[in-house]
Specification:
This protein is mainly α. It folds into two domains: about 50 residues; about 45 residues. The protein is about 75% helix and about 0% strand. Helix 1 crosses helix 3 and helix 2 packs across helix 3. It is elongated and about 80 Å long. The termini are far apart. The model has no long low-confidence stretch (mean pLDDT about 90). Pfam families: HTH_Tnp_1 (PF01527). One of its GO terms (biological process) is DNA transposition. This is Transposase.
């Protein structure tokens, strides 16, 4: 007899974390109500705490980060194109030298 794995929605997880952080309900009591291990509730709390700085980001700072990321992507693409051109030239030179030496 196997037990089917349950999944919880983001709203359910958030409600459990709020109960613990705001209402000061012990994790063990929340875990008993939800019929899960207390470590699962602790994992959800840790996930919320690790991303707390995202709550204070403004759209302006997010947009600036996106522009910086876009600029980085463009620069990396340009580097890749230049690298591919150099590799292509080296391969052509290598093939020419092999033909001259009679290796091909």
């Amino acid at each position: 007899m196997t037990r089917k794995r349950r999944s919880f929605s983001a709203a359910e997880k958030a409600a459990a974390v709020r109960k613990h952080l705001v209402d000061k309900v012990p994790v063990s009591q929340i875990a008993d109500q939800m019929q899960v291990q207390p470590t699962l509730i602790h994992n959800w709390v840790n996930a919320v705490m690790s991303q707390a700085e995202r709550a204070f980001e403004t759209p302006r700072s997010t947009k600036a980060g996106k522009v910086k990321t876009d600029r980085t992507v463009i620069e990396l693409r340009e580097k890749l194109i230049a690298k591919n051109e150099v590799i292509s030239e080296l391969m052509e030179e290598n093939i020419r030298s092999k033909k001259d030496n009679g290796e091909l």
